[in-house]
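Title: Comparing notes on inverse folding

I've been comparing how different people in this forum approach sequence design from structure. To keep things fair, I'm posting one structure and asking everyone to reply with a full sequence. Here's the target:
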């Protein structure tokens, strides 16, 4: 039995169950409101075509997970903590869990179409490889699929949650290479600032056997991604 992977599976199952419970409270529908006005009321609103919804939902998920788990003991369950000391723009993850000597970095993603991005490779390399290199880590991607539509219950236009999923980078074999986009945030082009892409097909075709899953193996994969730019 791979003790490291057993911890990953435990944290994955807890995160998934917590978020399922949170969305269930709202009937898997979220009303986007400002001063009593439904921002999605008009079908021609400027919200749906922007990236604003993604940021709003990510903040909602982090805040609710933090509140939901704040009294947990990190033994029978897990306590999810917000990143306090940095803006998440400079980190590859949005919240974290310390469970049985493993530091879990949780990246919150929302997906209206085909959002397969994980993180900028240079930031992921800094967080996973360079920062506290002797600390065993795991990187989880917690994804919420959603669409916009009219609620069957209230007849209001809302964000409709269509499902959630979670995976860990440690489960994926990157020995044959990786995929990335070419986004760049600096004046001088830096290929390492492209975001790692993990599609469902890539994940399905490149899964590691349980016995092969380890922090050091994934650290080597990320090191190679960074150094082969």
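Reply #1:
Here's my take.
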């Amino acid at each position: 039995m791979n003790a490291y992977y057993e911890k990953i599976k435990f944290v994955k199952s807890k995160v998934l169950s917590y978020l399922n419970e949170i969305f269930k409270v709202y009937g898997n529908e979220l009303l986007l409101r400002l001063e009593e006005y439904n921002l999605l009321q008009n079908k021609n609103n400027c919200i749906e075509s922007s990236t604003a919804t993604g940021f709003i939902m990510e903040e909602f998920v982090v805040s609710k997970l933090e509140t939901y788990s704040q009294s947990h003991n990190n033994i029978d369950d897990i306590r999810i903590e917000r990143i306090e000391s940095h803006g998440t723009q400079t980190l590859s993850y949005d919240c974290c869990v310390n469970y049985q000597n493993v530091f879990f970095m949780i990246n919150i993603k929302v997906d209206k179409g085909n959002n397969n991005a994980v993180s900028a490779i240079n930031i992921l390399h800094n967080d996973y490889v360079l920062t506290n290199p002797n600390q065993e880590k795991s990187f989880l991607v917690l994804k919420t699929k959603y669409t916009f539509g009219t609620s069957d219950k209230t007849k209001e236009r809302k964000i409709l949650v269509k499902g959630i999923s979670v995976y860990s980078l440690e489960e994926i074999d990157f020995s044959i290479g990786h995929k990335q986009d070419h986004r760049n945030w600096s004046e001088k082009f830096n290929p390492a600032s492209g975001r790692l892409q993990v599609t469902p097909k890539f994940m399905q075709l490149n899964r590691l056997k349980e016995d092969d899953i380890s922090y050091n193996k994934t650290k080597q994969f990320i090191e190679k991604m960074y150094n082969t730019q």
